């Protein structure tokens, strides 16, 4: 979300409210600051008065004031129109407005004035924020939708979180119960663990940047200060953040440096604030806050009924030495989490009052609820691809415009003919025609999220390896990996002007991707088939049927599959000499794209196959670390991608145009993301 008050309840605002600003915990501290100067020695009365005058002057000149109210309809370069709605709030750098698309769906638009982007450094910072946020796919992180611009503003379109932020919740409730805070902490820690596994430090975690979505799930927003650590041991040195939440090592500046532990510190600050009603180092004077942080000068208010176990955890998290703080996984092993009451959800009722019976949940039920909350927040997922901010990501492809096409999904020309999965005959198909199932997929958020997450992960690994080789770093870690022969599309027939797209896999399974988005896949070595349909919760749902229990409603689909099976067997040759079953999981075609130079297949196991017109075929594994080459002579070879990129070609059968095709594959995947 915007670095602003966040998503407030949807209600009309008067003119006075539009330009007003609420202060967290009723103190005059800035919402965001960065870079900051380290606190100096005690100031004289005149110096304090001068500082206060400067504060007032800076407040009048805050960059968010340069944001002009968007027009009633904001249009992207591709013609999509968004209707401006209510003003939601503002921070030091941006204002946030409701935006409604033509279907009536609401979004939040973080609006940054172009007039505030006066230097290349500021522009790079904004583009970095967009790049980082765009790559985030997690149930507890605000979903990035789009970014675009007009002559005055840059708009970052985000999912709408209409049920306030934790800051508004605390202002209403004054303090929360320990079971509620446990639930909140699990969701926050799950999202932060995801960020850290991708080498991203948020650096501005605070109650005002964490929002409730329509289902009362918490979402972390505002990546304006987020940064990527290029390696595990590297550090950042900019003094930035929100005063009440800044870790002591951040105040050390270049002399100390900081890393992931600053987010752990902020988690401890939020936990304290939610339980005690205000942050531990609260003061009306920012310099006093800094001094108290450096000295670790805080107390537990004895008038608040907070458990000893909670205080132990807070004390450990707020260790001055970052190396002494518990890890995110270790935090959840504390007895405060394991032995306390834990609710199954956070309800709308909790926004205004203490929920009933929240303290009376049994130990057994609490343990189940904790396990479920951890699973939902992604604690069981181990491997994540690191976010890469490459120079090419931050260089504009349109010199007079602010946003490069590599970061703005809507600001691209339709270079590729999207046919997922419907396509008419090539002679008659208009280049810009959007077909029935294309609309189904492009309007399906869960399905698109799964597809786009896979593309993003693959692209990041491909570009990481390329960057390692370009800079002369060792790629041994990318070569010493296990790999196996992939599942390939060995035959295909495009008959989507009537039925759909038929294909045979190297496993000899036969499938048809029908025009309604469903797939029927007949398994070669057993009398069974899969019926795969688009699902509102999971993207796809697969139903397996044995030969004797196939429902009659699938009779026509089975006839189509059988027809194409016979046709391909009689008229088409295998793509290689290495067919046959080679994996345990059944694979199907998710979607495909036809373009002048090749056809691209996206398979359900996450791999991408490119069939080029010169009869060379390249297949990327689901993580982008392995590549398979099928030559025009139908020989097949599989290597670690790093090995091929180091040599510039395949060690076996050469492809003289590999370098060109490599760039083409990267562009194809990137544009697939940008066109959603």
Automatic annotation (TrEMBL):
Task: Please give the residue ranges the record annotates as the region Disordered.
Answer: 1-66
Task: Name residues in a coiled coil.
Answer: none
Keyword line: ATP-binding, Kinase, Nucleotide-binding, Repeat, Serine/threonine-protein kinase, Transferase
Report whether Zinc shows up as a keyword of the record: no
Compositional bias (Polar residues) spans? Answer: 9-31
A Gene Ontology molecular function term of the record: centromeric DNA binding
> Which EC numbers does the record give?
2.7.11.21
Q: Name one GO cellular component term.
A: nucleolar peripheral inclusion body
Reaction equation(s) it catalyzes: L-threonyl-[protein] + ATP = O-phospho-L-threonyl-[protein] + ADP + H(+)
Sites where the protein binds ATP: 114
All residue ranges annotated as the Protein kinase domain in the record: 82-337
Q: Which InterPro entries match?
A: Kinase-like_dom_sf, POLO_box_1, POLO_box_2, POLO_box_dom, POLO_box_dom_sf, Prot_kinase_dom, Protein_kinase_ATP_BS, Ser/Thr_kinase_AS
> Where's the POLO box domain?
488-570, 588-674
GO BP annotations of the record are:
exit from mitosis; filamentous growth; G2/M transition of mitotic cell cycle; homologous chromosome orientation in meiotic metaphase I; intracellular signal transduction; meiotic centromere clustering; meiotic centromeric cohesion protection in anaphase I; meiotic spindle assembly
One Pfam family it belongs to: Pkinase
Q: Which PANTHER family match?
A: CELL CYCLE SERINE_THREONINE-PROTEIN KINASE CDC5_MSD2, SERINE/THREONINE-PROTEIN KINASE PLK
Spell out the family assignment given in the record's similarity comment.
Belongs to the protein kinase superfamily. Ser/Thr protein kinase family. CDC5/Polo subfamily.
What is the recorded name of this protein? Serine/threonine-protein kinase
User: What are the leading ranks of the lineage?
Assistant: Eukaryota, Fungi, Dikarya, Ascomycota, Saccharomycotina
